Amino acid sequence: MLMTHSSNDPAGFHDRAVLITGGTSGMGLATARLLLESGAHVVITGRDDARLGRAARELDGVSDHGARLSAVRADSADLADLDRLADLVRERHGRLDGVFANAGTGVFQRSGEVAEQDFDRSVDVNFKGVFFTVQKALPLLDAAGGGSIVINASWTLHRGPAVAPVYAATKAAVHNLARTLGSDLAGRGIRVNSVSPGYIVTEMFHAANPDPASHEAIRSQVPLGRLGRAEDVAETVAFLLSPRSSYITAQDIAVDGGLVTAVPAS
């Protein structure tokens, strides 16, 4: 059954099941927290048991002491892991009402410095992993009578940063994927959209910008005058996953403080 909402459940997440890949930190973790606070059952994935454990402990207080949270070790680039993940979700919940395909990795190097293994890993996680996460989730979304998928893209698909040629290309690929999947899956009652975060302060942001002195220059590019928070993206993802966006599909929402479409006042 498609998600409905009432005055007692304005967000429409009560007892709904949502999968968040890459949910151990940053935007994925913030989205998991928000959905758990809204009454959802949430499955988060990550590749590292220690990080999964930390995330589960952090979310313990908003998940009825873990009753509504499943933390699953899974590599989104590994199809065997995705099959095992789908089986686990089917066993525990029988369906999925929403998917946030958030798992990603970044190689921030100039084109002449990118090694083949870095290229392959970026494509495997950021593109192949997203595609097959969606594919493996489709029977579970069908079991719910439809649902919503949100893909995490990036502001870099709108502008070409010199230090991220591979990363930006993979994010452009999944941006297009959201549009084509939106067309492909509409007849099954499944909506597909993407979000394009700007400069969001996460572990990946710090990895790409290790010098704190550079952060002020980055902030000055943003018309709203601040760097983004993981919660800024989580709120947008929750909207797209919810019934409040029931007539929105095959779209991209930039969560970037105006970075790619406005010029800061001097």
Could you please describe the fold and organization of this structure?
Belongs to the short-chain dehydrogenases/reductases (SDR) family. It comes from Streptomyces sanyensis. Pfam families: adh_short_C2. With 266 residues, the protein is α/β, with parallel strands linked by helices. It is built from 8 helices and 7 strands. It has helices at residues 26-37, 49-59, 79-92, 116-143, 165-185, 203-208, 214-219, 230-241, and strands at residues 17-20, 41-46, 69-73, 98-101, 147-152, 190-197, 252-255. Strands 3-2-1-4-5-6-7 form a 7-stranded parallel β-sheet, with helices on both faces. Helix 3 (79-92) packs parallel to helix 4. The radius of gyration is 18 Å and the shape is globular. The protein starts with 16 loop residues before the first strand and ends in an 11-residue tail after the last strand.
Radius of gyration: 18 Å
DSSP strand count: 7
Shape: globular
Query: Beta fraction of the residues?
Result: 5-15%
Number of helix segments? 8
* Share of residues in helices: 40-55%
The major pleated sheet works out as: 7 strands, parallel
Low-confidence stretches: 1-7
Can you lay out the helices and strands and say which pair or pack?
Elements: E1 17-20, H1 26-37, E2 41-46, H2 49-59, E3 69-73, H3 79-92, E4 98-101, H4 116-143, E5 147-152, H5 165-185, E6 190-197, H6 203-208, H7 214-219, H8 230-241, E7 252-255
Parallel strand pairs: 1-2, 1-4, 2-3, 4-5, 5-6, 6-7
Task: Briefly characterize the structure.
The protein is an alpha/beta fold. It contains eight helices and seven strands, in the order E-H-E-H-E-H-E-H-E-H-E-H-H-H-E. Helix content is 41%, strand content 14%.
